[in-house]
Amino acid sequence: MKDLKLVVQRFDPVKDASPKMVEYAVPKREGMTVLDALLYARDYVDHSIGLRFSCRQASCGSCGMKINGRPRLACYTQVEELGGEKVVAQPMDNFAIIKDLVTDLGSFFDKHKAVTPRLVREDGEEQERPTGEYLMTPGELSKVLQFTYCIKCGLCTSSCPTVATDERYPGPQALTQAYRYSADARDQGGAERIAALDNSHGVWRCHFAGSCSYVCPKGVDPALGIQLLKRHVMTGKPPHAKDEASKVWKAPESGR
């Protein structure tokens, strides 16, 4: 098999004035992913290539980057899918570059945390020292299930044109998770979440370009989540009122 032409954008902001593209010859093999090719180049050709990875099975989101012009997971992208001749790897857009393909996700996670991505309950003691389960019906679960698949890879944020122009915009990932928890039947913090996002830099800055859903590797469909969130922001009511939040299930008395 012919060697793969692997082109990597190299840039170290500490010592480089501008990025440069460097080409490496990588022996192709059947089933090779872009991450496989990058690791070969780093291990056997140039040890200084900077990249981030972990699980190698599209679960952790660590290896997000721009591959042949599109945000993708390197571990999930097959070389043959790209034509098998040339692969161009660049860092994700909309993030500062730490080195080469490694980007700074600090602001991304700060915005994620800002939407309170956890169940908010009034029964704090029960949460800390649970005596039973918070139950959901299959119908309640179906409303949020696809939005729970987010692996926080940052690809949606990398592709978002609004993120590129407004640093105060939460971004598709954070907004989708705001909907995911507000729509959860067990949550009681939806009203506070949607009130905090009802502003010119919040949910209304989304212009429904749809690129976030196009690049999502897990089928989360952030664009849909944001549109559903807008509905509840307009009414000022979360998907579930506080008095409708699920109750704690406790085992029945045994009768003994």
The CATH class name of the largest domain reads Mainly Alpha
Termini separation comes to 73 Å
Strand order of the largest sheet: 2-1-5-3-4
Find the CATH topology of the largest domain.
Fumarate Reductase Iron-sulfur Protein, Chain B, domain 2
Mean residue pLDDT: 92
Task: Explain what this protein looks like in three dimensions.
The chain is of the alpha+beta class and 256 residues long. It folds into 2 domains: 3-103, Roll (Ubiquitin-like (UB roll)), CATH 3.10.20.30; 106-244, Fumarate Reductase Iron-sulfur Protein, Chain B, domain 2, CATH 1.10.1060. 29% of the residues lie in helices and 15% in strands. The radius of gyration is 22 Å and the shape is elongated. The protein starts with a strand and ends in a 7-residue tail after the last strand.
Provide tags for this entry:
2 domains; five-stranded mixed sheet; two-stranded antiparallel sheet; Ubiquitin-like (UB roll); alpha+beta; 29% helix; Fumarate Reductase Iron-sulfur Protein, Chain B, domain 2
